[in-house]
Write a structure and sequence with these properties.
alpha+beta; 6-stranded antiparallel sheet; two-stranded antiparallel sheet; 10 helices; elongated
């Protein structure tokens, strides 16, 4: 969501994560390009009362430097070392988000099927699901409803068989699936007596629910998609003749109910798998934004041209700096640094000399020219060193207090 933020409606843009950097002055947050960024600026003084250094946002550093009569030179935005960065505890699967997903499934299909008096969302068989949502909304007390949610949530579904099933169902439905859209499927199967639903967040992360284990009503399958970016909308609700099961119980959910002892290694593996797959989605968002969101890329290049360190205001220097940020250049090993330079230096050396400052609306070569250079560098680096993206979390885990054995 951070990376897609500029392409989302305002109400969907997420707030920053809580970050602690105990060995560094100032407060940091993750900015819209996934980079650690200090908020404001801090003046660090020497024992004799003179200024040692000023650190923080470039504009703030420049402003404070002028106030103190100092000349700002070569201001660069430097991140803390990765080993010094700590994130607040974030659940791998947040129970409130899980409730929101269930609410989204029920309300969306209830609205789209409103012409059907006997629509499945009003069935007595899933009254308990509606009650879970109602109590979450009314009380906001996640503890009260966690066990009830644990009974119906199947968790995140990474099994290739289920992923392939979702893809085939969506393909058979013919609904449009624009990049990063949410996909919803519901299917009632009297043969297995199951009524399942799955919401595939960003088209990549499927979370399934077993709404009923006693479904003896009509067989059904409904499919719809909902675009989340500017200019996108939701699809019609398509009905299919066949019915399916859409998932199986996993540890990848907010509340684990199991009749067998739960091993800590299983929880760690589940949490790490969630973190790894979400990082992959983040990287997809980085690529999409850099290759398709021209206005945002132009904004980034304009900013890089007007930083105090970029004395020449040159666009090739700005693109080089952007690639360092996007591909985490400061943390690459020696071989990847060599590949990094070999991939983009020929492109930038072959580009025309051009500069930009705040007095102009566009560089002399035009933004289309530099957008093409930017895309060429991005694609060359992806081929040379791998996907773009910056990772901080080295390990994820699920607390042992989360699972509750069924017999307890």
């Amino acid at each position: 969501m951070t990376e897609l933020g500029p392409t989302l409606p305002n109400e969907l843009r997420r707030r920053g994560l809580k970050i602690q950097t105990p060995n560094h002055v100032g407060k940091y947050s993750v900015n819209e390009i996934g980079q650690l960024e200090m908020r404001g600026a801090v003046v660090v003084w020497k024992d004799d009362g003179s200024v040692d250094y000023i650190t923080g946002e470039a504009e703030e550093v420049e402003r404070i430097s002028r106030q103190l009569g100092l000349e700002p030179k070569n201001i660069r935005e430097v991140e803390p070392d990765r080993k010094d960065v700590f994130f607040g505890k974030i659940p791998s699967v947040n129970p409130l988000i899980e409730a929101c997903m269930l609410k989204c499934i029920l309300q969306t299909f209830d609205c789209l099927l409103r012409d059907q008096a006997d629509r499945f969302t009003r069935s007595d068989k899933i009254h308990h699901c509606r009650e879970i949502v109602r109590k979450f909304v009314q009380s906001g007390d996640q503890k009260e409803q966690r066990e009830a949610m644990g009974q119906i949530s199947l968790g995140l579904q990474y099994d290739p068989d289920y992923r392939g099933r979702y893809e085939q169902i969506i393909k058979d439905s013919g609904v449009e699936s624009p990049p990063f859209c949410h996909q919803l499927i519901a299917s009632g199967n009297p043969a297995t007596r199951t009524l399942d639903a799955v919401i595939i967040i960003f088209g990549e992360e499927p979370h399934a629910f077993r709404l009923s284990n006693d479904w003896d009503e009509n067989a059904l399958t409904y499919v719809m998609t909902n675009g989340i970016m500017h200019g996108q909308s939701f699809s019609e609700c398509v009905s299919l003749a066949d019915s399916y099961t859409l998932g199986k119980p996993t540890f990848r959910k907010s509340f684990i109910i199991s009749s067998d002892p739960v091993q800590r290694s299983d929880l760690e593996n589940s949490a790490s798998e969630i973190a790894t797959r979400r990082f992959s989605i983040y990287r997809m968002a980085v690529e999409y934004r850099q290759l398709h969101c021209d206005d945002n890329v132009i904004k980034q290049l304009r900013t890089a041209c007007t930083r105090s360190w970029n004395v020449s205001k040159r666009l090739d220097d700005a693109i080089f700096d952007r690639m360092i940020v996007l591909f985490d250049g400061v943390n690459l090993d020696a071989k990847k640094i060599e590949n990094f330079l070999n991939a983009i230096i020929p492109i930038l050396d072959g580009a025309k000399l051009d500069s930009f400052d705040d007095d102009n609306d566009a560089p002399s070569q035009g933004w289309d020219y530099w957008l093409q250079i930017h895309r060429s560098c991005f694609r060359a680096l992806k081929q040379a060193i791998g996907e773009a993206g910056r990772i901080y979390v080295k390990k994820a885990w699920i607390e042992m207090s989360d699972p509750v054995p069924l017999q307890d």
